[in-house]
Design a protein that fits this description.
six-stranded mixed β-sheet, 8 helices, elongated
């Protein structure tokens, strides 16, 4: 805050709040706000009826509940004092910011991520261990998919998605963040919504799924994995050739993800293989995103991001090839950058699973 010239940091709904104080606010019309002055003590302003949900940590923050007839915006503004610059959590509701700007007309507001993201994106050993635990849980589900232990043929995409979600929870996650199941031509849409399309024999199925595993400290860490299955023992030759390119591109990007390497160079390592094979126009998204208490956070593995990877960065490596009207494929692991080399947190088989 001193470096950025920020007088007060304010965090409301979103992942910054539980990360820094262990309390996750419900997304309500009643505002919750952690007010952190550059100097002095932090205060959690919270609706009185929510106070019982707070695990109080007096060494970190004090609690200031507000009643139904009080004006919480005025309380927050009073705590901020005559702040020239306030950094606001990126996910705070816009309505609350409008109210704050009316209450604090002489204050300049900026995004809190300039302060919080550099802290959050470098994981310590405990955080990496929690990401590894979450990754191992979805690895077990991916392995069952690859062995044919989760039925696909004759099931709807939605039914398989629901089963993946059930297993995510069974494997120790507290929330299902997503469970993409895309069969055949639907896999050409990277974020396809699983629907009533029935999965048939003799086609590819892309499964991308993950959740959040919450610890005793109230902070959750995410998983994210993508694997591909062919639903008989005679996979299409064109698909197999493209998958071999994808497999090598993903492995090349993982190898490139060393400490000190710019994020964009990891993207380039994957993209160049796909371009050289003639599929460049079918790789339509970045190679990866950071992961931690959010499924998508800094650092982003994308062209233009020259930030060098640091020990403790954790991110996805997930190149894809998508041909509209035919099929799509994506291969994804979570990788941690470490001083002794890239550390993949997913270990499920990377080859195309062929279920005859």
């Amino acid at each position: 805050m001193e470096v950025d010239g920020v007088d007060v940091l304010m965090l409301s709904v979103g992942s910054d709040l539980p990360y820094f104080c262990g309390y996750e606010a419900m997304p309500l019309e009643r505002i919750t706000m952690l007010v952190v002055p550059r100097e002095g003590d932090a205060t959690l302003v919270i609706p009185g009826l929510e106070r019982a949900r707070v695990h109080e940590r007096p060494e970190i923050f004090s609690v200031a509940p507000w009643g139904e007839t009080e004006d919480p915006i005025a309380k927050i503004a009073d705590l901020a004092g005559a702040a020239d610059t306030v950094a606001i959590g990126d996910h705070m509701w816009a309505g609350f910011l409008v109210d704050l700007t009316n209450q604090m007309p002489n204050t300049s507001f900026c995004r809190a991520s300039s302060i919080t993201s550099p802290i959050r994106q470098v994981k310590d050993a405990e955080e990496i261990a929690r990401l590894r635990e979450a990754g191992a849980a979805v690895d077990r589900i991916a392995t069952r998919l690859q062995r044919g232990e989760i039925p696909l043929v004759g099931q709807t995409e939605a039914a398989v998605s629901a089963e993946l979600g059930r297993q995510i929870l069974e494997e120790g996650h507290d929330r299902v963040n997503f469970a993409i199941v895309a069969a055949g031509e639907n896999a050409a849409s990277p974020h396809h919504h699983a629907g009533e399309r029935v999965i048939r024999a003799g086609e590819p199925v892309l499964c991308d799924f993950g959740g959040t595993m919450i610890g005793d400290d109230g902070i959750g860490y995410c998983s994210d994995i993508t694997r591909n299955i062919w639903t008989d023992d005679r996979p299409d030759r064109e698909y197999l050739e493209a998958y071999a390119v994808l497999h090598e591109a993903q492995a090349a990007a993982v190898r490139a993800a060393t400490v000190g390497t710019p994020c964009q160079d990891v993207d380039r390592a994957a993209r160049q293989r796909i371009v050289d094979a003639g599929f460049g126009s079918y790789f339509v998204h970045r190679t990866g995103h950071g992961i931690g208490v959010e499924a998508h956070e800094d650092p982003y593995i994308v062209e233009g991001n020259t930030q060098p990877l640091a020990h403790g960065n954790a991110f996805s490596v997930e190149p894809g090839i998508y041909i509209e009207g035919k099929w799509g494929m994506r291969l994804e692991d979570i990788v941690a950058a470490a001083d002794d080399g890239p550390d993949p947190l997913n270990r499920a088989d990377h080859h195309l699973a062929v279920i005859g």
